[in-house]
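Team,

Forwarding the record for the chain on the shared tracking sheet. I've put the sequence and predicted structure together so nobody has to dig through attachments.
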Amino acid sequence: MRSIQERNPVPIALVGLVIVIALGLVAYRADDLPVLGGGTTYTAHFSEAAGLTTGSEVRVAGVKVGKVTDVELDRTRVRVSFRVKDTWIGDSSGAAIAIKTLLGDKYLAISPLGAAAQNPDLTIPLNRTRAPYDVTQAFQDLGATVGRLDTVKIAQSLEAIATTFKDTSPEVRHALDGLSALSRTISSRDDRLKRLLLGSDRLTGTIADQNDQFETLLKDGNLLLEELNLRRQAIHRLLTATRALARELIGFVDDTWIRLEPTLNALDRVTTVLEKNQKHLDKALSVVGPYYRLVGNTLGNGRWTDAYLCGLTPNEYLEPGSYPENGCMPPKVGGRS
């Protein structure tokens, strides 16, 4: 067996290219595979598509559960195929084309009703489906229709009708005169009406072009509201915990008050006695201070005590000049030298 280096690289490259293309197709159509994609495909009849396209979302109670796989014409009706996963669809379920954004994006809303499951081989009939009224498309059609009107000919026709009925009763003549004035007014305002309708058409086109930005803005607003909701929940938990802590502190005070009350009363009596004897305490402290200072000086030289004895021997038994001149006062303040 020859190695890869010895083989012709062209067939190997072709086989590798085919494998890469096949893997790409499998990855692109992964949702349609029975094992990887999964889900069940249903069909529904609508009176009109109303802007619903392949790839539009399928929602149940506002939650995305699948997508539209095909939108095709079935004689005088529109046949919509959609696939959902892990979602129960009943035999009385309804389907409606709903407006997703203010700019006209649509999605398929399913109402899962019924006692039994919907047979995927049976199409949901028209009496259980509903299509929305598209205001944007209606204004665009109105603009196109008005733009094709020949207002000059309409005014001439109304003038001819007024001339024809000029010999009729005054009431009819007045009505036709008013109709003629109306036609002249419409004709004089024709350019303005056209500009207004053209401006409306450009406005709708601009809004449609900015659809992605509006959708991003709405998503960001939704994220902001979710974050505010999380903050509100955190504050709610904080207030709930604070209230629980307050209840625990109240219970603790109630439980310990019986034991704390005698102690606090005794402490109050002690402070009252100390307050009454404050002058005596001040005097005692002023006297005790020097006494303890002298005791400290006496015992502050180590393991012995400094002492000075005077007057044990009468002066007449001492030689002149050997007894202290100042009596029994120490020769040096603070002790012997």
